[in-house]
Known about the structure:
By secondary structure, the chain is an all-alpha fold. The protein contains 23 helices and two strands.
Amino acid sequence: MSDELLPVETLDRLSRQEGVDVRPILVRVLTDLFIQKPHHAPEEVARYEELALQLIETVDAHTRAIVARKLADEPRAPRRLIDRLLQDEPAVAAPILARCAEVPRHVLLTVALDGGAIEASAIALRSDIDSDIIRILSHHPDDLVLESLVANPAAKPGEASLAALVARALAAPPLASAVLRREDFDAAGLAPLYLLASRERRAEIRQALESRPTRPAFAARPVRNADAVDAALVEAATETGRGHVIVEALGEALGLKPEQAAWLASEPSGEAFVMMLRAAGVDSDSIARALLIAQPDIAGSVARFFELVEVAESTSRAVAGDIVAALARTETRAPARHEPLLDPSGSPERAGAARAAPRARRTFSRAGDVATRQRG
């Protein structure tokens, strides 16, 4: 390869030509030549490293990012050059963080803990991502990082990490959609997103909850004053406009706050209301009557009415209780602002300071310094 690489003297002469800055082209060509040759002697690697490090310091960020993308999948890339690119600004470091197998694990942990949206998102896309990094990234403050994590088929979050993702997804519709599309996620852990799920996904969540050997996450609440629910059904059936007494009785029986019961009962699909009735032990015939009394819009749709009755009949009281408990713990919050962008180099960015502000070169701590800082 020494014959193929341009000598330093030639590089210097070309780079000093008046009015022409050929250094960006030179470093890219040099990198292409290095990658294309199947075998390198140690001195050839050292020669490329020397030349590339010299040129990297003289070219713009766009060129450095191109070099980083070229070297990210190159196992023979010189370590000093990789370290230099890792310490660069986010758009340059991102390809290395996302794909380079030679990045030390303690560096990945450090950036996952303290890195910005672009760098953490890059790590979230790694094919060799592990449970510790998933756990850290699942608590990152930027939704772009979580979206990248969920988009990575290699990311298999455990129960705690999935719970963190689900909690964030409640206020971020794009993230919620992405989480619900992951068929390999534990469907039982998606119960808080039940009302955001498709009809088919809701059925899968119910089935997953039914199949759970234990119910540590969404244990069914004990039913209190079940007789009051029956009395409310009778009262509402005998007097028009008394549907609210059913909701109040259900809330009391299930230990819900009045605002929780009212919100669940007014949910447009009617399925949350059916789950409340089922969790309170109301039988199928009484559920049908309650729908006719308290949900006039649904009662006007024959297909939807019978679909809800079928859901009630196929859902156990325990599963309905799990779903009600999960939904009751969610908060009705406005969706988070969502601004994913893609720069021309292919690196994901988010609008605002994370994109606009330049970042100083980083120095990474040693592996032993990271363990005490990991988040749960």
